């Protein structure tokens, strides 16, 4: 009897501790999680993106040619008990993708690691920050001709009703940009 009572007390205490420690995870009341007050203040950089959007994605397939528009859902949520942000896309063409977004106070920037349906041995990373109503991230990448530069990702027109996104190659001085992928998103009505 004493052992059963001890187990019940320990189980109840452990369950209560678990519930108190992880208040920022996605739940029925907060399906996209909550920002943890202990997280860097920059966790709010993504607050308008949290939730699901209906989006239209279009990619460049040639010098002057763009592919047909692909319908997609882009969902952002807080993860790791509100200390980071995860996004994932579900695309009509079956090529799904996502990212884990962690803010590094040491380097004062976002570290974004991208993954996709096609598995790779190492995840590609982008680095950057929010500037006004834009989030701009960079990953070093030469142009097809070998010129030094970056693949730049820009979220723009960020609001509670949606956002736009563009992926483009830019030279080191950012005087030339060549867009290769564009996405236009509207928040889903809840």
Q: Characterize the largest beta sheet: strand count, sense, and whether it forms a barrel.
A: 10 strands, antiparallel, barrel
Total helices: the number is: 1
Radius of gyration: 20 Å
Query: Helix-strand pattern, N to C?
Result: HEEEEEEEEEEE
Please state the second-level CATH architecture. Answer: Beta Barrel
Describe the structure.
The protein is mainly beta and 190 residues long. The chain has a single domain (2-187), classed as Lipocalin (Beta Barrel), CATH 2.40.128.20. Helix content is 11%, strand content 50%. The protein has one helix at 2-21, and strands spanning 51-62, 65-66, 70-79, 84-91, 97-104, 109-116, 124-131, 134-140, 149-159, 162-171, 177-187. It is globular. The model is unreliable at 5-15 (pLDDT under 50).
Please name the defining characteristics of this protein.
ten-stranded antiparallel beta barrel; Lipocalin; 1 helix; mainly beta; 190 residues
Structure summary:
The chain is mainly β. The protein has one helix spanning 2-21, and strands at residues 51-62, 65-66, 70-79, 84-91, 97-104, 109-116, 124-131, 134-140, 149-159, 162-171, 177-187. It has one domain (2-187): Calycin beta-barrel core domain (Lipocalin, Beta Barrel).
